[in-house]
Amino acid sequence: MGIINHRYNKSHNENHARFCWMECYNEPEVASALLNWIEDWARSKKMEKLVGPLGFSDKDPQGFMIEGFDQPIVIATNCNYSYMVDLIEKNNFVKKVDLVVYRIDIPEHLPELYEKLAERALSRLNLTVIEFVNKSQLKPMIRPVLNLINDTFIDIYGFDKMEDREMDEFAARYLPVVDPRFVKCITNEKDELVGFVIGMPDMSRGIIRSRGYLLPFGILFILMSARKTKQLNLFLGAIHKDYRNSGLDAVMAIKMKISANKAGFEYVDSHLELEDNFKVRAEMERAGGKVYKKYRIYSKDL
User: Fold this and answer.
1) Which residues contact 89 (CB under 8 A, 6 or more apart)?
2) Candidates 1.10.599.10, 3.50.50.60, 3.40.630.30, 3.10.129.10; correct CATH number of 107-265?
3) pLDDT at 192 over 80
4) Rounded CA gap, 194 and 184, in Å?
5) What are the C-alpha distances in Å from 176 to residues 78, 172, 180, 223, 295?
6) I need a surface site. Which of 67, 74, 185, 209 has the fewest CB within 10 A?
7) d(CA 296, CA 302)
8) How many Å apart are CA 179 and CA 272, to the nearest integer?
9) Is the Cα torsion angle 11, 97, 51, 162 positive or negative in sign?
10) Is-contact 268 103, C-beta < 8 A?
């Protein structure tokens, strides 16, 4: 598929088209035919560059996996054979940006520094941590969470602000698989959302066993997989710009660790982080995280 996100192009002063959801056998002629068609289409629209895999926004799966093929794919990330990397590069696409994924062992106890930072943040800033036990409690937080994403993700490559209809679609897509135990929100004294993090039990092995079918038994395989897994996947998180570097990340890390320990999780998948997001990467590495997957978004001048 070829996409032109005119709104993103205008706000970032770009003239780029995107390709996404590319699938083919390991046949160079087929790959070239698909890519050449999208390139010609993009040129006809006066685009200067073709980038991808990249969907309508960074909330769609993005990038081809280039490392970590021996690991299960988690929700909301692309799945591709290693030969796709060769096919795309033979068509003169080059690296635009890499995204990394960390695996982090969940400790019994976090460093004392985390406890001190969290305690100071909650008391000094008069903040409240909100935790959940059922999905009905989550619904009032959907719009505040997505509005905070709009405010804080603006500088992330590929991100485009969500309109109300897009928020509703995004929530409907993922709310059924969100586990309320692994959603943590922080509000200020005005009850405004200033930070959140969302995690999900990994269900990849159940999806593999279901072979893509929910019925008659696929949904049971997926639910059982989510209950038995030892892996917690981080999905989304954000902190309001006025509250960054104040300890909120420590607060949410502690709360998530407590819930993860209770559920018997042993490690965390960080989801995709841009390679140049050095602050978040430093936090992952401070917690003992190791990069175990990499994805790449490619580009080609037209």
Assistant:
1) 298
2) 3.40.630.30
3) yes
4) 11
5) 20, 7, 10, 11, 26
6) 209
7) 19
8) 20
9) negative
10) yes
pLDDT tens track for 70-116: 998 888 888 999 999 999 999 999 999 999 999 999 988 777 877 88
Sole residue written with tokens 């490392």: 67
Per-residue tokens: 225: 């997989």
Q: Residue 237 is encoded by which pair of tokens?
A: 């998180």
Question: What three-state secondary structure class fits 8?
Answer: helix
Strand partners, 200: 233
DSSP secondary-structure letter at 82?
A: T
* Helix, strand, coil content of the chain in percent (nearest 5): 40, 25, 35
Distance CA 85, CA 87 (A): 5
196 conformational bin, left if phi > 0, alpha if psi -120 to 50, beta if neither: beta
* Residue type present at position 104: I
- CA-to-CA dists, residue 248 to 195, 229, 242, 243, angstroms: 7, 28, 11, 7
Extents of the domains making up the chain: 2-100, 107-265
Q: Which of 183, 182, 197 is nearest to 148 (CA)?
A: 197
Read off the pTM: 0.90
- CA–CA gap between residue 164 and residue 266 (Å, rounded): 37
CB 9 within 8 A of CB 16: yes
